[in-house]
Structures are given as structure tokens and as C-alpha cells.
Amino acid sequence: MIKTSSVFGMLRHFLLFFPLVVVNHVGALEQAGIAVGSGFVVFPAVTYGIKDDSNAYSQPDSTKESATVTSISPEVVMTLDTGQGEYELMYVLEQGAYSTNANDNYTDQTLTAGGVVSLSRRSTATVEGSYVLGHDARGAGVDEGVVAVEDVFYPDKHRTASIGGSIELGAENSLLGFSTFGRFTDKNYINNFDRGTADREYFSWLAGVGTSIYLSPDADIVVEGRATRVDYISSSGDAQSKEASGHSLLGGFSWSFSGKSTGRAVVGATQRVPDDTNQSAQTSLSWEVEAEWSPKAHSTFALTTSRAFAETSGPGSFSNASSTVISWDHAYSIFFASSIQAIYSRQLFYLNDKVVRTDNSYTLSPSLIYSPSRAMDISVGVSYLTKQSTNDDLEFDRMIYSLDLALGI
User: What's the pTM value of the predicted model, to 2 decimals?
Assistant: First the structure.
């Protein structure tokens, strides 16, 4: 019932961890695909969704509005396995419509390509690139509180391009292994420049090296060093105050025990050095943990948690963000499965070296999936979200009921 992309799973570590983005992924079609020759296999699919949102714009009780949002999302995935390498190309189009205001309707597009190549018996290279035409729904990002319903008439639209890759050296169970990795991201906005979106356009890069030291057949010691840089395109004082460099040193373990438990956990320190001389360098405890435990083949528990400096989506010059996700996916039969996910996130916003706002958010999302065939998933779910903030005007509760139908070939 669940098909996992081996290519993008291997790339997840350094491409997707910061900032941590969490989606309530309840399943994916287990399609046979269409062989088109020369090793290429195509997986077309389409998902139709409808959700009832009690607080569509993330408002306090006094200004909240409910809405029904319908969406349709066709996608196509093409894979190629040459024996020496695995490659994948994915395109997703999503169109959404709000029952309350047509101005909130959106069309998002995502194009992603990636590959994993064996350079030799002792070396592997990965590469991934993506281009996203997306939007920030009203009530998200900087358009929070009553601003989102009184002063903003269209959601912020943006395009984001990124490319990254890694090279890993060292045979399995060798005494030492080495890796180098990097990522470049460029984010630009398309509208609402009078609302300050121009000050949020930036490009950033990350580069790092790591080593693994053999500890046992099931575990390795891991050490990584990273350097980061973010530059904002606007020359305004607000944008320039956010520019900074960063350095991280992390250490920990990776493991794989009898196929039932796999994971990676590192902890260390990160320093942010701002370009603005009115700000001081900040050093913070950082960590990354990814762990899975499958006591049975049909049941999997997962934990993902991280903490790091991040670009601010609200006030101030930067933020220190942490997030923890716990999930349980369980298949009762070939037809029925369930998923439950709990999320806790905390974000501290800094201005001139002082914390000016703290947000704590909690989400609980259970869902049930019925798969009458390998090419169909029907899922129903509910998500409860609550946000607590030192700014009382930004606190809210939100309940979302959803129904999704996914069809594939």
C-alpha cells in the first residue's frame, strides 16, 4: 500500500532538514507503473481532496472564519534504474479552491529531479534539484493575526529553486567513511511587494563534510562540520539586518539493528554571525534525530526532531526553531491502515540579540486509509492545531476534517 522513493529518501538528510517541514503523509499508492522502454517506468496519479477548516486563516476566536477547501492534484513520477544508478523525475500540480473567497484560490507546481549513482565499490554520489511555484496561505508567514483578514487580499506567491548533492566515500563496515555535501536555495516572491515580500527574498547555501567511524556491524560514530550563508536580495535595512553566516559542529551515532530499528542522532553547537555590527554572534545547542522502529513489518513508529537557527517568518532578524514529530503507521490488512502524527514546535524570534516573541504550536493528526486496490487510496482524517504565543493576538485553535481520494495507474 505504501511506495517509498529510494532516491529522495537518501537525499532527505541534508536537503530537507532545515527548516523542518512536516506534512501529514498518510500513504502513497503502490502502483505497478507503466514501462515505456529503456528502463523507464512512469507512475501517473491524481488526488482529489476536500477539507472543512474551522479557522481557515489561523485567526483568534474574534475574527476566525471557516471554509471548505477543495483541491485536485495530478502528478507524474518517472524512474530509471540502470543498475549502477537510480534516477527519479517528479512533477506535481495542485489546484485549490476556497468556498469563502476566490482570492485565496491557488495553483502550485513542483518539479523535482534526483539521482543516486555508484561511482565505485567505495563511493556514491547523490544529486537533487527542485523548482517550486507555490504560495503562503493568508494567515501564514508574516501575514498573521487580523492583518491576514483585514489588510491582505491575496496569498503571497513565490518561486523557490534549490539544488544539492553529496559524495560518500567508504565501503560498508569499513573503519572510516567520509562525505561532503551541499545545497543552494534561491527564493523570490511574485506579488504583494507593497506588503513587504521584497524584503523576504534571499539566496542561501550550505556546505559540509562528515566522517563515520566503525563502532560495530550495527552502528557508527558520526561527526559533521557545516558552514552556511544567507544573503537577502533587497537593500532595505530590514532585509540587510537578516544577513548572516553560520558554523556548526555535530556528533553522534547512526544505527541499523536487524532491520527493525534504524536512525541517526547528532547533537552539537551552532554559531550565527550576523553582518549587522549592531547584533552579536549567537551560539546555540543544535540537534538532529531521525529514528524508525518497526516491531512488525506492518507497523512503524518514527521520531524526527531538530533544533537550529532559521530565517524569520515573523518579527526580528532571525529565529531559533525546534520541532519534534512522532508518528505511528499501522496496516491492519492489505485493505485498511491508520496513521497518527503528533507535532510540537517552538520558535523564538530575535531582534537586536533579544527574544521579542515566542511561539509554541501543537498538532495532532489521526487518519484512516482504505485501499480497495493497489491503485486507489481513500483516506479520512482530522487535524487539531493550537498555537500559543507571547503575543496574545496571534493565538488560535484550528480543526480540519479531510477526505482524500488518490488514483494511480
Answer: 0.88
